[in-house]
Design goal:
Radius of gyration: 20 Å
Largest sheet: 5 strands, mixed
Structural class: alpha+beta
CATH architecture of the largest domain: 3-Layer(aba) Sandwich
Number of domains: 2
Strand content: 25-35%
Helix content: 25-40%
Strand order of the largest sheet: 1-2-3-4-5
Shape: globular
Order of helices and strands: EEHEEEHEEHEEEEHEEEHHHEH
Distance between the termini: 49 Å
Number of strands: 15
CATH class of the largest domain: Alpha Beta
Length: 318
């Protein structure tokens, strides 16, 4: 693991204090350089990401600055976060650094990493094959991703499906899963997950907790996968889950609406999505009881792989 380093080229604050604490990370295909004038800010981020520390980046990094606002009164002190030079958020507690840095990185990926075709989705895998859980915030995709992870699936990410536009592979960005408080009880009762604690208490949706994938299993993080199943979940509580197949055309339109950079790709964006919907059957999922929903997703995934091997029609579970 790398150590904090002094960076003489880092920009100075107005009061002359340099961002002297620099930590570098490689999260799948995304490199991150975290710079701060607070050693504690880096330590708080390392609570969740120390395993990703590196000496140098495999890719051009996203640069995140965490600065303490100048105040002689400790209770009035704030932390200001920017990514790639753009202000993102401001908050009071150093314990809130990890989710705010994550959200700043998300913004920078959406704005600055156009080399990847991006869809708002969680991505899991079995071996070389992946499932894309695509949906807007509140659709339950992160809860389902955590449940699949706890059931033995590989993990590529819970915020972005990052697709290589040349070959359609799903690439890894294994940030910690960000779980809202209502998910904690579901995951405890259905999957036995314990130990989650709030790391940000000022989010509009209520407290959130971060779950690093390798704290579930040491081999949890995948590197890449080919998409074999597309799922558009809708959150429900209890009851039996239901899956309804949708056409490739419907899936393409939904994915276009959930893409962060579809329009910037122009005609090539249509080609990327057409290849995606032709490589993976698509379903609208009404999630129900969590364990039953995980079993249904496993059945859909197994059927997709069987159809791929045999070039056979899909069987839709009752």
């Amino acid at each position: 693991m790398g150590e904090d380093q002094t960076n003489p080229a880092a920009p100075n604050r107005a009061d002359g204090d340099a961002l002297v604490h620099v930590a570098r990370y490689q999260l799948g295909v995304i490199g991150l350089e975290l710079r701060s004038d607070s050693r504690r800010a880096v330590r708080e981020y390392d609570r969740y990401y120390a395993e990703f520390r590196c000496a140098s980046h495999a890719t051009d990094p996203i640069v995140v600055d965490v600065r303490r606002s100048a105040s002689r009164w400790r209770r009035n002190q704030r932390f200001d976060v920017s990514s790639n030079g753009r202000p993102r958020s401001s908050f009071r507690s150093a314990a809130d650094v990890p989710p705010h840095v994550d959200w700043a990185v998300n913004w920078a990926i959406g704005l600055d990493r156009g080399e990847y075709f991006q869809v708002h989705a969680a991505v899991l895998s079995r071996g070389a094959h992946g499932v894309v859980l695509a949906g807007a915030s509140g659709s339950g995709k992160s809860t389902l991703a955590a449940a699949l992870l706890l059931s033995g699936w590989g993990y590529l990410g819970d915020e972005f499906a990052l697709l290589d536009p040349d070959d359609g592979r799903l690439l890894a960005f294994p940030k910690a899963l960000c779980l809202k408080q209502p998910s904690w009880k579901l995951l405890r009762s259905a999957c036995g997950l314990s130990g989650l604690r709030a790391c940000c208490r000022r989010r509009a949706e209520g407290p959130v907790a971060l779950l690093p994938a390798r704290r579930v299993r040491g081999d949890a993080i995948a590197t890449s996968a080919m998409p074999r199943l597309l799922v558009f979940p809708a959150a429900r509580t209890g009851g039996a889950p239901r899956a309804r197949p949708i056409t490739p055309a419907d899936a393409l339109m939904r994915l276009a609406r959930l893409s962060f950079n579809f329009f910037s790709y122009g005609a090539r964006g249509l080609e990327v999505l057409e290849r995606l919907v032709r490589s993976a059957p698509a379903y609208e999922l009404a999630a129900g009881e969590l364990r039953a929903t995980v079993r249904l997703l496993g059945e859909l995934f197994d059927d997709a792989l069987e159809a791929l091997r045999e070039d056979a029609p899909m069987r839709v579970p009752a």
